[in-house]
Design brief:
Length: 197
Amino acid sequence: LIFFPRFFIIKMRNYRNCSKTYRTPRRPFEKERLDSELKLVGEYGLRNKREVWKIQLILSKIRASARILLTLPENDPRRIFQGKTLIHRLRKFGILEEEKQTLDNVLSLKIQDFLERRLQTLVFKTDKSKSIHHARVLIRQRHISVNNQLVDIPSFMVGLKTQNTISYFVKSPLGGGFPGRVRRKTLKQETEKKEDK
């Protein structure tokens, strides 16, 4: 065994500069904003208002980039290239409609356009759950798959191509897999009762 002095041992640390994914409102007690946020939280079955603020930040960044591109002349290569990629990305997730593929329409986007494309909302709208809250429970308890891949994140943004592939996970009891713990227990009790008779 070779023993190295203490100063030879290098400690590697992982320094990551993680920026915030949400921005808190400037005026914390504005009644109209509080009511509108609470309505969104209830309508889309969100966990808390931070989920609303996350989408607001994403939307503000998209709007800001669209606003910068609109200041450039129409024939500018930067405006053409970056504008097309921005619209294509929004179109891919079904946030922008086919008829509204312009930078002006990007500025008119709302929070609801993003919330409609969440996995939680689409699970509820495809009648795979009894309510929007039940949809969240199903996703978190690993019952839902997108494109035959397990997804357990309710805020997962579903693309237009994968929208029709939302289904119950193959290994889930709801998707024809192995029965769950409670179901196994009841089946065991039923078999025991039959044997006693």
